[in-house]
Amino acid sequence: MVSGKTVKLLVYELLQFAALSGTVLVVTERFARLLSEVMGGDDMIYWLVVAVSVAYLTSATLLVWLPFKYHILKGRRLTKRWRPTFLLHVILCTLPCFAIFMASSQVQVNSNLRLDHFAELPVSLVMFSLICVDLVERIRPCRLLGQEADSLDLTFDLPGPILTYLEPVSHVSGQPPSEQAQPSDAPASPADPKNQPGPVAPRRLQGVSGRSVAPGNKTSGAAYLYSSSPSRRFAGPLGFLRRKDVRADVFVDCFLFWFDTVEMVRVSGQPAVFFSPWVYPVLVLALLSTLRMALVPHSPWLSSAGVALQELPFFVLRVALMAAFGLVTPVLYPLKNALVGLAFFYFTVLTKVKVFKRQSMF
User: Fold this and answer.
1) To which H or E segment does residue 262 belong?
2) Number of CB atoms found within 10 A of residue 98's CB
3) Distance of CA 226 to CAs 51, 72, 232, Å?
4) Contacts 24+ apart (CB under 8 A), 182-189
5) CA nearest neighbour of 228 among 250, 244, 214
6) Do 331 and 361 form a contact (C-beta atoms < 8 A)?
7) What is the pTM of this model?
8) What are the CA-CA distances from residue 214 to residues 19, 140, 324 (Å)?
9) Contacts of 114 (CB under 8 A, 6+ apart)
10) Per-residue pLDDT of the chain (362 residues; tens, 9 = 90+)
11) 174's torsion region: left (phi>0), alpha (psi -120 to 50) or beta?
């Protein structure tokens, strides 16, 4: 009998291959239909392009996709710091599709025709295939059936245990207790150094695993605020509505992560942009922004790669597009790119300067 892990692995691999093959076939079929219309309804051109797309997909699957996937599944150590499957999908699927979009624009411009500007395909299909591949890679460690373990968190990386209980501390400022708290029959002698008030060592904090944690250890404040025992979390008849599941958060986070790139690719589908030379930098920068996801989601290089490959180039390009074509993209997106870039520069560079290290300033 086939195990559940094998079935889950087959489902994941079929979904990733369907995202690759389905996107390539649909985009090339539409490009073949466009060439047929440009050539005056020649069906031979149509079937020739379709045959070339099928041959490309077959050769890429047999020569690249299957051997590479077999090597990845056998040597899982390669996937700890980067995601070769996502990079392979970008090379075999996203890159050819963006090249077809640019070729379609150039063919129509050279023929003085405006037949198809591929308005819905870049956003609805090409980007959705990227989201599917990213989603499968993120949700692989999760179980599909049953409840997920409370300790599993794929979104936040917590270096220490989650605090669930703080023991009250009488005083930590070094001030002596009040006179009423001292016994009347044993007055403290100021000359006795043993009775001098000194700094009181703070009590240690109790973690989830029962280990004591020093107060100096850094722990996420959100983890402390939202941590609670399972009995309290699911208490009441509607307690299941308060349940927080990591697997559902992965779906939401995956779609939200790609909205900026989706909007940039959507701009290339605007007729004014698609039939102009601006379509080339738009699609090229959108393709480069997808390369940052070749890193694992919790990689320390992901923030730098996001600023270098997406935030700064997208901000410059969007400002140039608005200057050339008007409001072809919402003002919210260049504001987002600018704020994220400034925040990254401040927290990674300026906070290291000596003048900003003074805690008394803020």
Assistant:
1) helix 259-268
2) 24
3) 56, 37, 12
4) none
5) 244
6) no
7) 0.72
8) 48, 34, 57
9) 108, 271, 275
10) 667 788 888 888 999 999 999 999 999 999 999 998 888 877 899 999 999 999 999 999 999 999 988 888 776 555 567 888 889 999 999 999 999 999 999 999 888 888 888 888 788 899 999 999 989 888 888 877 766 654 444 444 434 444 444 555 555 444 554 444 444 444 444 445 445 555 544 444 444 444 444 444 444 444 433 444 444 455 667 766 777 778 888 888 888 888 999 999 999 888 889 999 999 999 999 999 998 888 877 778 888 888 999 999 999 999 999 999 988 889 999 999 999 999 988 888 777 776 666 665 55
11) left
List residues bridging with 163 in a β-sheet: 207
Residue type at 134?
D
Q: Which helix or strand (DSSP H or E) is residue 286 part of?
A: helix 279-290
Break the chain down into helix, strand, coil percent, rounded to 5.
Answer: 65, 5, 35
Q: In angstroms, rounded to a whole number, what is the distance separating the alpha carbons of residues 152 and 38?
A: 55
DSSP state of 311: I
Please name the residue that has the structure tokens 């599709």: 97
- CA dist 206 to 160, 162, 165, 221, 223, Å? 12, 9, 6, 15, 14
CA within 13 Å, CB half, 155: 16
Inter-axis angle of helices 312-325 and 259-268, nearest 10: 30
- Identify the DSSP state of 354: G
